[in-house]
Amino acid sequence: MPNDSRVREVPNDSRLIFADHVGRFYARQYGFPPMAGRLLGYLLVCDPPQQTIDELSQALLASRSAITGAVKLLESHGTARRTRAAGERMDRVSLDPADRQPRNLDSAIHKEHAALFREGLALLTDAPPERRAPLEEMAALAEFLADRLPRLVDEWHAHRDTLRASGKLPRPRA
């Protein structure tokens, strides 16, 4: 087996507790299955940062099928990736480095939301104002976010670059 010298660390209770906290947060906020959130949390703190399905299953006290399903979900969201080194017979799962880019700050998504809400408002043209109010506010918020987010992303990139230059954030690997 390649990398026989690789030290495997059994997760301690604090890592599992953290993984559980992330799992509950992602389930509550984003509707993720708890195992997908637990896997994400564990991948944030595990050592080494690349783990096999068996290692993840053992660490998270879960079945291989639960881990495999969670990996597939995280891959579909661009959060995790599988890699396989030459000569190895199993994939290794890790966080996807590209996931550090702000995705939820895409103004196009909010433009699309606004268009959908405006479409709904067109159906309620003759409805009383209180009936139209939720869609009016949601459309206004979506348009506001679509307008402001590009500037916010630019500000974040400038701030991130400042933090990297000062050494407070690591520079990305090439």
Explain this structure:
- The chain has 174 residues and is mostly helical.
- Helices cover 61% and strands 5% of the residues.
- It has six helices and two strands; from the N terminus they run ααααββαα.
- The chain has a two-stranded antiparallel sheet with strand order 1-2.
- Strand 1 and strand 2 form a beta hairpin.
- Helix 3 (53-60) packs across helix 4 (64-76) and helix 5 packs antiparallel against helix 6.
List its salient traits.
6 helices, single chain, extended, mainly alpha, 174 residues, 61% helix, two-stranded antiparallel sheet
Structural class: mainly alpha
Number of strands: 2
The order of strands across the largest sheet is 1-2
Strand fraction equals under 5%
Task: Name the helicity range.
Answer: 55-70%
Tally of individual helices: 6
Overall average residue pLDDT? 89
Helices and strands in order, then pairings?
Blueprint: H1 13-30, H2 34-45, H3 53-60, H4 64-76, E1 80-83, E2 92-95, H5 107-123, H6 129-166
Antiparallel strand pairs: 1-2
